[in-house]
């Protein structure tokens, strides 16, 4: 119970500091750029590979059903909607939880049990401003970019397998895809990833800062932060999808 209250207290402090103009202006830009440099190369290649095979597998299961219904003009539209609204944001978040979230937790947990956090207090450096805010902001900045890369990669791989296996002209595929693509959906998808990134980074950092019990505690904190982040993402995804895509009219009604 005390551990939970401590985590909640740190989360409140982080949110307060994020909306404090003085803390944002005094943010160490070198530290922020360093976090972006760590996150981007470590995640980009994995995200591209995941998105490529996601497009292949999803298309492999879906396209043949549309061909059976003689609805070839709907294939690109349905895949675009699925990737943009749900699959790309959620699966990109899952990749970053395992790749970056666990890294944040284990790094901060190690600093905690080796008393490096206490040294920051001695130097009059607040750990939240110095360690957590750059990580949270960097995560929130990078998430929409990786989501867009994932979306584009998935569409390209889907077009590829449609052309190779089902002899569907890429021009037909992309005309169908772009006909259902709206700027509002792109903004909503980006907003989703920003919210996901905010929760993933905060959970990962807070679980690291509240680690206790030596090396065993580092492992427990890392495992716990990954599980809690995954559960949080799926719950938040349902809530956001319910309110952002609650229009009962089909996007395909114009076809």
TrEMBL record:
Query: Keyword Plastid, does the record have it?
Result: yes
Q: Which UniProt keywords apply?
A: Membrane, Plastid, Transmembrane, Transmembrane helix, Transport
Q: Name one Pfam family in it.
A: MlaE
Q: List the molecular function annotations (GO) for this entry.
A: phospholipid transporter activity
| Keyword Coiled coil in record | no
Q: Which GO terms describe its cellular component?
A: ATP-binding cassette (ABC) transporter complex
* UniProt topology in membrane: Multi-pass membrane protein
Per its UniProt record, what InterPro entries does this chain match? ABC_MlaE_roteobac (IPR003453), Permease_MalE (IPR030802)
- Localization: Membrane
Q: Where are the transmembrane segments?
A: 12-32, 38-59, 121-142, 148-168, 189-210, 222-245
Q: Give the family per the record.
A: Belongs to the MlaE permease family.
User: Mind telling me which PANTHER family this protein's record contains?
Assistant: ABC TRANSPORTER PERMEASE PROTEIN-RELATED, PROTEIN TRIGALACTOSYLDIACYLGLYCEROL 1, CHLOROPLASTIC
Record-given protein name: ABC transporter permease
Which organism's genome codes for this protein? Answer: Dasysiphonia japonica
């Amino acid at each position: 119970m005390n551990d939970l209250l401590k985590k909640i207290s740190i989360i409140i402090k982080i949110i307060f500091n994020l909306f404090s103009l003085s803390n944002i202006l005094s943010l160490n830009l070198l530290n922020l750029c360093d976090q972006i440099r760590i996150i981007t190369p470590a995640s980009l290649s994995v995200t591209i590979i995941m998105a490529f095979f996601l497009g292949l597998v999803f298309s492999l299961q879906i396209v043949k059903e549309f061909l059976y219904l003689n609805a070839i003009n709907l294939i690109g539209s349905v895949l675009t909607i699925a990737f943009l609204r749900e699959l790309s944001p959620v699966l990109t978040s899952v990749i970053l939880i395992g790749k970056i979230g666990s890294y944040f937790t284990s790094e901060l947990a190690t600093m905690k049990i080796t008393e490096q956090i206490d040294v920051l207090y001695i130097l009059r450096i607040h750990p939240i401003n110095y360690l957590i805010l750059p990580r949270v902001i960097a995560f929130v900045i990078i998430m929409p970019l990786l989501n867009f890369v994932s979306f584009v990669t998935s569409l390209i791989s889907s077009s590829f397998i449609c052309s190779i296996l089902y002899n569907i002209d890429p021009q037909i595929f992309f005309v169908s895809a772009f006909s259902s693509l709206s700027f509002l959906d792109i903004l909503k998808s980006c907003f989703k990833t920003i919210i996901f990134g905010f929760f993933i980074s905060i959970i990962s950092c807070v679980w690291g800062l509240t680690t206790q019990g030596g090396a065993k505690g580092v492992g427990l904190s890392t495992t716990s932060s990954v599980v809690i982040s995954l559960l949080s993402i799926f719950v938040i995804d349902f809530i956001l999808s319910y309110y952002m895509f609650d229009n009962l009219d089909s996007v395909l009604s114009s076809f």
